[in-house]
Write a structure and sequence with these properties.
The chain is α+β, with helices and mostly antiparallel strands. It contains twelve helices and 18 strands.
């Protein structure tokens, strides 16, 4: 949720953010109205409770007819207090509902527009020129015995698969390399739950516009996570953190589940867009004033991993209309995919400022010992989709695939994968 103080002091900034996202700016006025109603309800209830307390003292000193009159007045006042508290409760609920309908305030400088309005910040590496017709990742993986799409569909349906043999080794090795890098950078490694409660899923902002992407187990009232960002955000819910020694950083290894609703017909071949994949996700808690700097650190760690697997890529500043509800800014790294002659997303890092933490009630103590809302950030360090870019960029004319040097120790020292 956005900060109500920011709303009151600069509502136009919130309206501008809504417009940049392509969202309804009138929701800001509805929130302002709900905030005013709630403050008025609180003031009335407090005033009536004050009267009730003062009347109670008078009753204790009164006698006879005066006491009887005061008791009668007390009953009337009690009814007014009850009604005022009910109104306050309704106003509280209406305020929270209106507040949750406003997405995070985008950072200054974020490009306006939708999915195609990103800004390319830089290119790293040059796409390879092949002296043969390159195969796509599925053809390569099938010839290497690295994937079985047919049996994946037989067992689980479309967009499921088995990673087999070297395919499984590649994923385990890639994610293990990511964890080792994260540990060396001071992250605490975590293997996280795949199921979370509704309040945790909602707290991270995934039950808004993209709720259709989330798998729900209705009988158990639990949700399958699409990223370990969700359980890592919930890990410290309702806590006050000690950040005296710097940000708290976690690296979560998890299986991830996405319904991919509305994406039928897109990337149906291979393992680019699937319902289940594995990922190592960085997650950071830090003071809000350090969040922009921490965001750039997460991006740098992502680029360090991409350098290790020797992929050409670009970094984009995602447009406001393509941000998730919780993100104030998002940088994507997109690797070159030769078969598509296009850059495709392989990492994403978001600065969620205090949006998630305010919903999940996560705070820290400032220099004066006063509790303040913490900022949360997340970033992909490696995921199953990377195998696509590794396979295609490092393929040889005979259908073999060269293993990037940094990855070799994690796959038994193998230098070349041969059909």
């Amino acid at each position: 949720m956005i900060d109500l103080r920011t709303l009151r002091e600069n509502p136009e900034a919130v309206r501008a953010s809504q417009r940049a996202r392509g969202e309804d700016p009138s929701l800001v006025d509805e929130l302002l109205s709900a905030d005013e109603r709630r403050r008025s309800a609180v003031s009335r209830a407090d005033s009536l409770r004050g009267e009730q307390k003062a009347l109670g003292k008078q009753v204790g000193r009164a006698q006879g007819d005066e006491r009887a009159a005061l008791l009668t007045k007390g009953k009337e006042l009690a009814a007014e207090v009850k009604a005022a508290e009910a109104e306050q409760s309704e106003a509280d609920a209406a305020l929270v509902d209106a507040q949750k309908r406003i997405q995070n305030i985008v950072e200054p400088g974020v490009p306006e527009g939708g999915e195609d309005d990103y800004v390319v910040l830089k290119h790293v590496g040059t796409p390879r020129e092949f002296d043969f017709t390159p195969r796509d990742h599925l053809e390569l993986m099938e010839s290497l015995g690295a994937v079985d799409m047919e049996r994946g569909a037989k067992v689980s349906g479309s967009r499921f698969y088995f990673l087999t043999g070297i395919g499984a080794q590649l994923q385990i090795g890639l994610l293990s390399m990511a964890v080792q890098q994260a540990v060396a950078a001071g992250f605490t490694p975590m293997i996280t739950p795949s199921l979370v409660r509704p309040e945790i899923m909602e707290g991270t902002g995934f039950l808004g516009a993209h709720a259709s992407e989330v798998y729900r187990l209705r009988d158990d009232d639990l949700f399958l996570v699409g990223t370990s960002e969700v359980p890592l955000a919930g890990y410290h819910s309702d806590e006050i953190l000690d950040l005296a020694n710097g940000p708290k950083r976690y690296a979560g290894w998890s299986s991830c589940y996405r319904r991919e609703a509305g994406s039928y017909g897109k990337d149906t071949r291979g393992i680019i867009r699937v319902h289940q994949f594995d990922k190592v996700e960085m997650f950071s808690y830090c003071p809000p004033e350090l969040a922009a700097e921490e965001h750039l650190r997460l991006l740098a760690w992502e680029e360090e991993m991409l350098a290790k697997v020797e992929l050409p890529y670009r970094v984009i500043d995602t447009a406001a209309g393509d941000l998730g509800a919780s993100a104030a800014r998002k940088y994507d790294c997109e690797a070159w995919v030769p078969s598509q002659q296009a850059y495709r997303e392989v990492t994403s890092t978001s600065n969620c400022t205090t949006f998630q933490a305010r919903r999940l009630n996560i705070r820290f103590r400032d220099a004066d010992g006063k509790p303040q809302t913490v900022a949360t950030l997340n970033g992909t360090l490696a995921t199953t989709r990377w195998i696509v870019a590794i396979m295609e960029n490092h393929q040889q004319a005979d259908g073999s695939v060269r293993v990037p040097e940094a990855l070799r120790p994690y796959v038994g020292g193998v230098e070349v994968l041969k059909p």
